[in-house]
Amino acid sequence: MKNESLADETDLQIIAALQKNARASFADIGRMVSLSPSAVRERILHLEDAGVIKRYQVEVDYRLLGLDIEAFILVKVYHGSLQTLIKKAAIWPEVLEANRIAGEHTVIVRTALKDRLHLQEFIDKISTYGDTVTLLILSAIEKKQV
């Protein structure tokens, strides 16, 4: 049986438009993809119902909030500490995102922090759950949309 895609080329163009600006109107997107606003709305609803579009997000400039340091922290979790770290990562305000990964390390955490002291304190806190490697984010590389 052929594995059918949940989205055609027009759907992919709509997704790309939403990734650039999730607040774009159906009319604006329709002009980009040569569809009526109501057709765009129906396609977006279908993509949401199918689970292709999971959520809409806000992109935040953390520096404007006084969080000047962003870093990835790799954690090689100590035996028996994984579930506790997962629970803590979900509630720590410094954590923007956390993922379990395959390889030498078990978890990667993306953080936003005020300054070097805040980074040091967070590393001290997270290192109680495993050995860490910290990677400072210097700048983001713009990702091409679908």
UniProtKB/TrEMBL annotation:
<dbReference type="InterPro" id="IPR011008">
    <property type="entry name" value="Dimeric_a/b-barrel"/>
</dbReference>
<dbReference type="InterPro" id="IPR036388">
    <property type="entry name" value="WH-like_DNA-bd_sf"/>
</dbReference>
<dbReference type="InterPro" id="IPR019887">
    <property type="entry name" value="Tscrpt_reg_AsnC/Lrp_C"/>
</dbReference>
<dbReference type="Pfam" id="PF13404">
    <property type="entry name" value="HTH_AsnC-type"/>
</dbReference>
<protein>
    <submittedName>
        <fullName>Lrp/AsnC family transcriptional regulator</fullName>
    </submittedName>
</protein>
<dbReference type="InterPro" id="IPR000485">
    <property type="entry name" value="AsnC-type_HTH_dom"/>
</dbReference>
<dbReference type="Pfam" id="PF01037">
    <property type="entry name" value="AsnC_trans_reg"/>
</dbReference>
<keyword id="KW-0238">DNA-binding</keyword>
<keyword id="KW-0804">Transcription</keyword>
<dbReference type="InterPro" id="IPR011991">
    <property type="entry name" value="ArsR-like_HTH"/>
</dbReference>
<keyword id="KW-0805">Transcription regulation</keyword>
<feature type="domain" description="HTH asnC-type">
    <location>
        <begin position="7"/>
        <end position="68"/>
    </location>
</feature>
<dbReference type="InterPro" id="IPR019888">
    <property type="entry name" value="Tscrpt_reg_AsnC-like"/>
</dbReference>
<dbReference type="InterPro" id="IPR036390">
    <property type="entry name" value="WH_DNA-bd_sf"/>
</dbReference>
